[in-house]
Amino acid sequence: MSKRKIFYLFLLALGVWAIIFRADLQRSFMNLLVVSELLNFEQQGWLGKWSAAPKVMEISYPGPKGTIKADLFLPQGKGKRSGILLNHGVIDTGKDDPRLKRFAEILCRSGFVVLIPDFKGMRSFRIGPSDIDEVQTAFTYFTSLKNYVLPQSCGLFGFSYGAGPTILAACRPAMRNKVRFIIAFGAYYDLKNVLSFIASGNFEFEGKRYFQQPQEYGKWVFLANNLDHVVSTEDRSILQRILQVKLRDEKAPIDHFIPLLGKEGKNILALLSHSDPSQTEILIKNLPPAIQTQIEALSVAPVMNKLHADLILAHGKDDDMIPFTETLRLARAVPDPRRVHVQILRSYTHVDPDYEAWTIKNIITFYLPEGWKLFRLVNQLMKYRQAPS
Fold first, then answer.
1. Exposed/middle/buried for 159, CB within 10 Å: 0-12, 13-18, 19+?
2. Which residues touch 206 (CB under 8 Å, ≥6 apart)?
3. Are residues 68 and 172 in the same domain?
4. Does 101 share its domain with 173?
5. pLDDT of the chain along its 389 residues, tens only?
6. Which of 297, 319, 341 is the last residue before a domain boundary?
7. What is the distance between the alpha carbons of residues 327 and 196, in angstroms, rounded to a whole number?
8. Same-domain check for residues 107 and 242
9. In terms of domains, do 255 and 277 share one?
10. CB under 8 Å to 142, separation ≥6 — which residues?
11. Could you list the residue range(s) of the whole structural domain that residue 213 is in?
12. Do 102 and 247 fall into the same domain?
């Protein structure tokens, strides 16, 4: 049987399943089209045949530190729509990332207005409290586009480390009653837990311990993000050289740099290379004060009790950058459990798909269970296409 026939068989089975469990057939049909696009992400599928291509406009607006460029995706047809502000996260391509544009197109074809601002800090691998201001300013601007969006029906979508500033912005007093929903994929709850994981590979949740080989890249993203906070000019210079070496080749030795470092530099590398999770808190306290402040300011844990928006959470079970237990912690911390929907996925690693071969066996054991999880996530999101009653 060809791959195409097997894929269609899967969609048929998922569609029958959806119809059995969902009374709203129109929304179930749209959900199925969106799921088919997500599972066949690299090429346009049925959603593209059943919907018109969005209109894409490059716009700009005043940000906290200057003019911000953004792409606005508009569904064809008249009328105002619900909106999604899409935060591109820590990627050097920013709003121009092809995968992000493809994802925005899928969201737009399903009925949402989508705005993707170009956040310069995250685009240059820098995340800080100023990014929370950037998200808030972008959302305020987005909801002012009243010719296109329903201001009372707009939400935020954040990936990975970009989900932190996204949630933090939504918890601010000026924002918390304006953000209707948040979608966070591969998000974190407390950066201390993430630092423990990227160094040791160990993590836990509610007494259960796990191990996952972490991606080395996460360590060097942390170093790049905090390099400017190293007080010692000499240590900063040496750490910059280490960073350049590791970003070229993660397996490259750096032992010859260690004797050249002072206390600050050695303390940072000790945090990034420790193997005992019980030492994480102690090692964080040895960091330069500015880095400690940054970690505290970007952790979501202290503000979750201020969240008013509905929360849709998804995380790859085998995520090697941020452990999936961080999303479970986010879900547990939501003040009203009725306002959170969470799915842990085998079909994603960090934020990229990790699919199995299209065989009859994998349809039964992998694609149908994972497809149903995606269907439920999409179904939850599609509820927000309508203005709140």
1. buried
2. none
3. yes
4. yes
5. 445 544 444 445 555 555 555 546 666 777 778 887 887 777 777 787 778 899 999 999 999 989 999 999 999 988 999 999 999 988 889 999 999 999 999 999 999 999 999 998 888 878 889 999 999 999 999 999 999 999 999 999 999 999 999 999 999 999 999 999 999 999 999 999 999 999 999 999 999 999 999 999 899 989 999 999 999 999 999 999 999 999 889 889 999 999 999 999 999 999 999 999 999 999 999 999 999 999 999 999 999 999 999 999 999 999 999 999 999 999 999 989 999 999 999 988 887 777 777 777 877 788 788 888 988 999 999 999 988 87
6. 297
7. 16
8. no
9. yes
10. 83, 85, 115, 149, 154
11. 195-297
12. no
Count of all residues that appear for the chain in the document: 389
- Determine the distance from the C-alpha atom of residue 374 to the mean position of all C-alpha atoms in its chain, rounded to a whole number: 15
Pair 312, 183: CB distance under 8 Å: yes
Q: Are the C-beta atoms of residues 252 and 245 closer than 8 Å to each other?
A: yes
Paired tokens of 248: 């070229």
Write down the residue that tokens 């303390």 correspond to.
Answer: 267
Tokens for 297, please give them: 């300011």
pTM of model > 0.85? yes
